[in-house]
Design a protein that fits this description.
CATH class of the largest domain: Alpha Beta
Helix content: 25-40%
Strand content: 5-15%
CATH architecture of the largest domain: 3-Layer(aba) Sandwich
Shape: globular
Strand order of the largest sheet: 4-16-5-15-14-1-11-6
Low-confidence stretches: 11-26
Order of helices and strands: HHEHEEEEHHEEEEEHHHHHEHHEEEEEHH
């Protein structure tokens, strides 16, 4: 099979096809050489990810204790020793059952801390960057790159980072614009944008493959405008002084980058047309669950087409109300254990979590259906589910749970892994996990973000060895 494809690629390189297909052909050659693309999908929820709700059901009696109050979520029992338990031998908890078909590539990761971050409603950039920033109503400044931004730089693509969200900051609802939610950054003071409208995100990412006369005319017009703009800038440069020329260089770089991106997209047009999601009324719906589903369709298509290797879906904000799930109270109210019709706040939060994991399972199924190398795209992807508020609605950062899914899952999956509790021997932090992600991407880091000064420095550096063994 591989030798046949190599013969085909040799013929294509000889001039049988447009050179604009070079990026796609490069990926095929890389696969033949055993170097396959690596992809990361982050899914960030608000209001905490309850650790006790991630424990296998049959282990819950010994590993879970009641909440501090009757209506509060149950709590995870801390451990003094590392727990490493095969998931196949146990029952997934109720809200994780959408992932039952992917157990061999699933890791439930508990016991890591993130006390170098701020607590409260959101750690903002700190959740993915490992540092303290912002306050309850403002993300503050990005002190350095977040892990998704670092991975975007390590795994370059046409769109290095695709961000999708429902709104802006934590205490905002649905918007229809480009927003800066304050959770992702490419570098210090370089926050990454997110598209809040599924329809606009689709147009931005996939319009190159749109069909019909109107779409073709619009694409042609955009290409012509970019070409003329670059030509005009080059012409002006020859007639101005060096100081103004330097300023103009920045404009030239921006427009030239846009033009280069369109050319690369044009080379992938056929592949994009096949994998681009079908636009339905969910892309313009005002119902939050519809828009979230549309965003996950876009995320899957962005990874499958290869136009991005790093996607982040910010699944909700505190002001989102999951009307599509029959929940009449917004996420913020549920976090404060306010009552909701027909269910307890804990049951409502579990329903929301199940919905998120259903979307993750849909993406995983799509990736698993696409052959790649000797396996599938899912084998070369890691999906990371976490909260920007650590373990509860007003997160403390003392415990920061993760759900990891995909063939890149460190350690191979099929694991419930719980590290010793905070300040116990063998405890580690979320920075160790992010070092692990960078290791998987081929750009290993020894320290990610800032250190927790209440923990030994050595325990916070390098990857999690148990996940790389």
């Amino acid at each position: 099979m591989i030798s046949q494809r190599r013969h085909l690629l040799k013929g294509l390189t000889a001039g049988a096809i447009s050179p604009l297909l070079t990026p796609f052909l490069h990926n095929l050659r890389a696969g033949d050489n055993g170097i396959l693309p690596k992809r990361f999908l982050f899914v960030v929820k608000s209001s905490g990810l309850t650790p006790a709700e991630l424990v296998p059901s049959d282990l819950a009696p010994s590993m879970v204790k009641p909440g501090e109050k009757e209506s509060w979520p149950a709590q995870l029992v801390p451990t003094k020793a590392l727990l490493d338990i095969p998931l196949n031998d146990h029952q997934l908890p109720e809200s994780l059952k959408p992932l039952a078909g992917f157990t061999d590539q699933l890791t439930i990761l508990q016991g890591l801390s993130g006390k170098m971050c701020r607590g409260g409603h959101s750690a903002w950039y700190g959740a993915l960057g490992c540092y303290y920033t912002g306050n309850e109503g403002n993300p503050g400044r990005a002190a350095s790159a977040t892990v998704d931004g670092s991975l975007a730089a390590a795994l370059p693509s046409i769109f290095p980072h695709v961000g999708l969200t429902l709104g802006g900051k934590v205490l905002t609802g649905v918007k229809d614009s480009v927003v800066y939610p304050g959770i992702s950054a490419l570098a210090a003071d370089r926050p990454l944008p997110y598209q809040a409208s599924p329809a606009m995100a689709y147009k931005s990412l996939f319009s190159i493959a749109a069909t019909g006369k109107a779409a073709a005319a619009e694409n042609h017009l955009e290409s012509m405008l970019l070409d003329h703009m670059v030509e005009d800038i080059n012409r002006v440069q020859r007639h101005i002084g060096s100081a103004d020329r330097e300023k103009l260089d920045h404009y030239l770089f921006a427009f030239d980058s846009l033009r280069d991106r369109r050319r690369k997209l044009k080379g992938l047009e056929a592949r994009i047309r096949i994998a681009a999601p079908t636009v339905t009324d969910k892309f313009t719906s005002e119902v939050e669950t519809d828009r979230i589903e549309a965003h996950f369709d876009i995320a899957a298509a962005a990874l499958i087409t290869g136009i991005s290797n790093v996607v982040n879906v910010r699944a909700d904000t505190l002001e989102v109300t999951y009307r599509g799930l029959g929940i009449s109270k917004h996420v913020h109210g549920l976090g404060h254990s306010e009552s909701v019709d027909g269910m307890t706040p804990v049951e409502a939060r579990s329903r929301i979590r199940s919905f998120h994991l259903e979307q993750i399972a849909r993406v995983a199924a799509k990736l698993k259906a696409v052959p790649e190398g000797d396996g599938t795209m899912l084998d070369n992807t890691l999906i990371v589910y976490l909260s920007d508020a650590a373990e509860k609605h007003h997160g403390s950062g003392i415990e920061w749970p993760f759900v990891l899914l995909g063939g890149l899952a460190p350690g191979g999956g099929n694991r419930y892994l719980q590290y010793p509790a905070y300040q116990q021997a063998g405890h580690h932090t979320i920075a160790n996990l992010y070092n692990t992600f960078m290791h998987l991407a081929g750009k290993p880091t020894e320290q990610f973000g800032r250190l927790d000064n209440k923990l030994p420095v050595a325990l916070q550096k390098g990857p999690l060895s148990q996940l790389l063994s």
